[in-house]
Model the fold of this input.
Amino acid sequence: MSDLHTDVRYVKGIGEARAKSLAKLGITDLYSLISYFPRAWEDRAAIRTIDTLTIGEYACVKAMVAAPPVASHIRKGLDLLKVKVVDSTSTLFLTFFNQPYLKNSLVMGETYVFYGKAEGTLLHKQMTNPIFEKENAHQVTGRIMPIYPLTAGITQNVMHRSIRQGLDACETILPDVLPDEIRSKYHLCHIGYAYENIHFPESFDALAIARRRLTFEELFLLCTGLQLLRRRRGDLHGLRCTPIDMSPFYNTLPFQLTGAQQRAVEDAIRDMCADRPMNRLCQGDVGSGKTMVAAACIYFTAKNGHQSAMMAPTELLAQQHYRSLAPLLENLGIRCALLTGSVTAKTKKSIQAQLAAGEIDFVIGTQALIAKDVDFASLGLVVADEQHRFGVTQRAALSAKADNPHVLVMSATPIPRTLALIIYGDLDVSVINELPPGRQTVDTFAVPNSYHPRVFQFIRKHVAQGRQAYIVCSLVGSDDTIPNEKKTVMDFTIKLQQDIFPDLRIGCVHGKMKAAEKEKIMSAFVHAELDILVSTTVIEVGVDVPNATVMVIENAEQFGLSQLHQLRGRVGRGQHKSYCILFSDSKSEDTKTRLKAMTRTNDGFKIAQEDLVLRGPGDFFGQRQHGLPSLKVADLKCDMELMHLARQAANEVLDADPELEYPEHRGISEKIHMLFESAADSMN
Ligand code: ADP
Ligand code: MG
Done:
């Protein structure tokens, strides 16, 4: 065992079966084994006396078995083992469930260290299923213990033993990707110390030092990777456009662009007139009018003699954009087309031919538009709607196509500026921080479940007036069951249809549905053929049904603030006053603060800021939404300071060695490659 990539099967105690289970955790060789970091650490270092235990706390006590353990068979599948232990201060009663064999492991008169949760009362303290070992063993007690995320077939014990062996085997061969200079400048510990102490810390101080180093490394690699993408873009040559008179475009609009929209358009035009291709994120709250910014860019590109393509995440959104953009642009002499999966083969062929011949100036479609064999005569601009579907790597891949077209990404997820700088390290950002005038706010209420009858009446009233409603029900499972999304939504819909609204037209969509089926129902709702749409959060971001005025969210405590805000953004899109009702019986202070924030403001940026503070960015973005490598140790909320240092270090390294060609930077380059590759995989 001398190579980092030695198969994990060579570790003592790991055979075929365990290797298979470990593979599920991404552990295949020694390196991935020791890079599998704990999710928590338990303080089993301090040994306490029984009299100092407070009820509810986890602690270690050293105590002697005072009487022979008593086993009893309660019924089939339920065996108890009761053991009385004492130390110099008091008595503790232990109960073990279904482990009758422990009877022989606990010998009267012998002293053991027990670790568990103190239960019972102050006069009769108990522990259930404590972990224990003979005194002075120091294997699972008397130290800080790492706790690993597990999978079936793998116990904490197996993890501890295997990782211990892995660390010993790798001790002298662990490569340090951080150059010495960076390490000493930023006061970071050596890689060996970091790996040892992230797993088996000598003390909590040592753990903090290890964690800081590994977090730094992770953020440093992320920043370096993003900076690299950004700098490489600087070397690319895009289609350089020239400024034109935009007034014909502005004059056909039924309204004036807001100041923020104008600034975003100016940013984009400036980019497109420069030498390198544009790579800009246009970020604006729901309803801030991002589509018009795109329209302006499309007009600009067409008048410069190039084509534009717009990608939407779903067919429905593509159609919606087509309906709103085509009439406007056709009026200005721009030839538009819609190319989605559902157009006939013949139409598709004809559109493809026209695109190749340069007879179409602007095409809207789904992602396939760019990925597949569609040729453009001169593709100048790619617009991607709803950025989170397209990760960093997709954007990079995109830029490689069609002679580096300009890229404009639009996102409705408002991200606080500090974070945007980092997450979108390779993008320039325009923020639309202003809504078109006259926009009504959505009145928002947080209510307990007892308000259901009143809210159902409220929905009924709105439907009677010709309006529509969304009901979002989240997945709530009891502790040990994984909620079944399909069942939850279907059951709820059936209940609503049978018991509450037998006379109304109700549809439901959930994530387990086939895309086509989902779109059919969404489309029925868009065309007002349904009064109520019940769904999980699958209702597409960006779907525009101005006639919908009520958004009801069940178990609102299940959602993050930004997600609630996105959902609320589905209403308040037309001339009718709209409402959002958040149901929750949660007593948690956190939840109350969050829901309160929703009722107080309609401003997505304020909400995002609050969300970030309350939950941290991991949850904030949801799972992998950003398409960035997932971070193993870093917590972007707590580690902001470190993030800035890492970014600084990344720039220092790249300034000295822009392509990471120095031998001491080879490790960095390899790791970045791996990180971004796996991020790309996880997006698909
Ligand atoms: P989003 O940023 O969520 O994509 P949209 O581009 O769909 O927002 O715009 C929302 C609505 O606001 C559309 O109906 C659009 O026509 C309208 N709109 C956009 N810009 C303005 C403006 N400057 N003044 C008035 N209405 C506008
Ligand atoms: Mg939009």
About this structure: Residues 617-628, 680-684 have pLDDT under 50 and may be disordered. Residues 233 and 276 are 7 Å apart (CA to CA).
